[in-house]
Amino acid sequence: MSDTIENVKCLIIGSGPAGYTAAIYAARANMNPILYQGNQPGGQLTTTNEVENFPGYPDGVTGPEMMVQLQAQAQRFGTDVRDGWVTKVDFSGPVHKVWINDTKEIHAKTVIISTGASAKYLGLPSEQHYLQMGGGVSACAVCDGFFYRNQEVVIVGAGDSACEEAHYLSKLCKKVTMLVRTDKFRASRIMEERVRKTENIEILLNTSTVDVMGDGQVVNAVKVKNSVTGEEKVIPATGFFVAIGHKPNTDIFKDYITLDETGYIVNIPGTSKTNVAGVFVAGDAADHVYRQAITAAGTGCMAALDAERYLASLD
């Protein structure tokens, strides 16, 4: 462990729209924030090629470019942006103790958690290839569905979110093929009925993905297999959407911060406050409903304002 303990007013854990927005507000309030970027600087948005639904970008912007701009804006006001990630915390006492890379110890008056949530993927090499290429694999229909207007797409998933995203895509796309791995949905009855009644959604039960196919640059088909009959077939598609859930990056906080049954941080409604005084949450670490860059940025603002008021109450 480090011999030197660093004392800070405001520590922000994680980057992305939530973390950087919190940093902008905290820095402008003279809270001298220190932000650790984590193991994916810029967060999930860095895997998105085109962002066209964030206000202020009439011509769109790439996810990585937006994150570079947000970081620069945070640094302009004095945010200390650092590489590294949190490996341990101790929120048991009045001083919030955080360890970086298992070595550096920080004592923070306020902590803003903006560690986000990671989309779950199938793990197929072809899926990961086209995800990295930005060539037709997505985990967010609301973010990327617009790019597939009047095209045929495939979506994987069986829960409420998958049904909601399939229904959303059906309004934009010529045809949506929904792959359900077992013989039944996990979704609520009302959501299942909604997709079953939508004419341009075809549901394939007992069906798993074998391969995401394409020309190396963009997706053009998906190979699937029926687990009952063993039959394989190729479905023409320009987009492959994965809707099998998200995992919030919150495990490290579970001994101190109240989480729900799926690991999302529970905040006091209408605020960014957690169950620990002086510890706040912003972005997808607490949001399993909207999961948009703009909502994450909004909660980043809330967290910084809540932290500023908390600091004022200590004086």
Structure notes:
The protein is α/β, with parallel strands linked by helices. It has helices at 16-28, 63-76, 125-133, 141-144, 160-170, 189-196, 293-314; strands at residues 5-13, 34-36, 80-82, 86-90, 96-100, 104-113, 117-119, 137-138, 152-156, 175-179, 201-204, 207-214, 219-226, 232-236, 239-242, 246-248, 279-281. The strands form four sheets. Strands 1, 2, 3, 4, 5, 6 and 17 form a seven-stranded mixed beta sheet that branches. A five-stranded parallel beta sheet has the order 8-15-9-10-11. The longest helix has 22 residues, at 293-314. The protein is elongated, with a radius of gyration of 21 Å. The two termini are 31 Å apart.
Coarse structural class: alpha/beta
Number of strands: 17
- The helix-strand sequence is EHEHEEEEEHEHEHEHEEEEEEEH
Low-confidence stretches: none
Q: Which range does the strand content fall in?
A: 25-35%
Rg calc: 21 Å
Question: Total number of helical segments?
Answer: 7
Distance between the termini: 31 Å
Biggest sheet: strands, sense, closure?
7 strands, mixed
Give the integer mean of the pLDDT values.
Answer: 93
List the helices and strands and how they pair.
Blueprint: E1 5-13, H1 16-28, E2 34-36, H2 63-76, E3 80-82, E4 86-90, E5 96-100, E6 104-113, E7 117-119, H3 125-133, E8 137-138, H4 141-144, E9 152-156, H5 160-170, E10 175-179, H6 189-196, E11 201-204, E12 207-214, E13 219-226, E14 232-236, E15 239-242, E16 246-248, E17 279-281, H7 293-314
